[in-house]
Write a structure and sequence with these properties.
The complex is a heterotetramer, with 2 copies of chain A (83 residues) and 2 copies of chain B (155 residues). Chain A has 83 residues and is of the alpha+beta class. Helices cover 28% and strands 23% of the residues of chain A. Chain A has a single domain, classed as Ubiquitin-like (UB roll) (Roll), CATH 3.10.20. A 5-stranded mixed beta sheet of chain A has the order 2-1-5-3-4. Chain B is of the alpha+beta class. Classes of the chains: A alpha+beta (83), B alpha+beta (155). Chains C and D meet through strand 3, helix 2, helix 3 and strand 7 of C and helix 1 and strand 5 of D. Strand 2 of chain B pairs antiparallel with strand 2 of chain C, so a sheet runs across the interface.
Chain lengths: 83, 155, 155, 83
């Protein structure tokens, strides 16, 4: 599974993209966020305030209860501010 | 049509091509968004409020798709005969153009509303993030509640 | 600013000058109204429905004053930093540009709403009359109820 | 008093402008329309349907109860259709 980070999430986590092997017990976005938060202080810090985390699965906006599976491209980012 | 690019755009040229290929549309609306001079235009000028530059980051694989979705949504809601969205990314300076939306319709209200809708949805759904550099340093722009409210009126 | 003229206008040129003199305004909206190809765009094409030309008559002594009044009203209702109205008169052909409205503001919604307001009031207050020539002959265009309704929403 | 006619009012009445001496008993727009209607069949025809007559006094939109006086510029026209 590819995970992408943007804007201050990218800066706090310290990378823009990584490949992970999804643990068998993680089946949705909320589970992924919990699992990522346990990987180190930079993840914990970046992912503390869930209300400012937005998620896309395969380039589509989803809510935290969206299912995920191996092979998906998951992107984590703050609320968008273009235009 | 959707274009995501680093380069500037020329409204005159874009309008001429757009208007030509849709000569039957009596109403054309254009919106241009530019980099502000002040981080908060409702506050006085100060070094901390004056913008030196902004950097627009985006999620290329998603940006094109999301803008196309937004554009399709506008086409399905209003009788617009053509639409164009151009959005820039990269480093930009005060006064630089960021975004262009063009809509054409036989009906004035449809052209206006579709353009406003495209901007509202783009502001809340298209994966762009602005980092602002002022005298106070560099910070990621926070999403505005009023942009969320603006997007919600189109439910 | 108000301009009433026979000559065509160039949106690219007008926008460039307009945007230059108001560099701090983050949002610019343009509306261009053009001569339709069909008298009723919601009806099928037919010789009676196809427009050959239109002639725009106006009341010169009043036009300038009335457009200025409308412009002042927009300025008083929205925080717009600049506005421009150009309206043509005389004989025009399908696809020809009739009217241009430009508004600039630090706020996107203000620019959109002021432009829409200017068009709605112009349509119902500025002393212009359209005579349309189609295969069915020449007739004065009737005022549209939906234009009255559009103008009323700004009470 | 100068009276101007526009669009189909101009065509029906057959002129675009005229100078009239306002009779003493005419003091408002409605009175002027009544007086003009009596001046001939082309006026009567043009001014029959009052709901499609609009009036400006000295280049400002007014309603039929607006006062008028010698020296005013009165314009009669159908509902506007520009833009």
């Amino acid at each position: 599974m590819k995970v992408l980070y943007f804007a201050w999430l990218r800066q706090k986590i310290g990378m823009s993209e990584e490949s992970i092997d999804l643990p068998a017990h993680v089946s949705d976005v909320a589970g992924l966020l919990d699992w990522l938060s346990d990987r180190g202080p930079e993840f914990a810090d970046a992912l503390t305030h869930r209300q400012v985390i937005r998620v896309a699965v395969n380039q589509e906006h989803v809510t935290f209860d969206a299912p995920i599976k191996a092979g998906d491209e998951i992107a984590l980012f703050p609320p968008v501010t273009g235009g | 049509m959707i274009r995501v690019q680093r380069e500037d755009f020329d409204l005159g040229q874009e309008y001429a091509a757009f208007a030509d290929q849709d000569a039957g549309a009596g109403a054309i609306v254009a919106f241009v968004g530019r980099v502000r001079h002040m981080a908060d235009p409702d506050q006085p000028k100060s070094d901390d409020n004056l913008i030196r530059s902004i950097t627009l980051e985006h999620y290329p694989a998603m940006t094109q798709k999301e803008l196309e979705r937004i554009d399709r949504e506008a086409q399905s809601r209003w009788p617009i005969t053509s639409s164009l969205i151009i959005h820039r990314h990269g480093k930009l300076f005060p006064g630089d153009q960021i975004v262009l939306v063009l809509t054409a319709s036989p009906h004035r209200d449809a052209a206006f509303e579709a353009a406003q809708f495209l901007m509202d949805w783009l502001k809340t759904k298209a994966p762009f993030w602005k980092e602002e550099e002022t005298g106070a340093g560099t910070r990621w722009v926070a999403a505005k509640e009023k942009d969320d409210d603006a997007a919600k009126r189109w439910k």
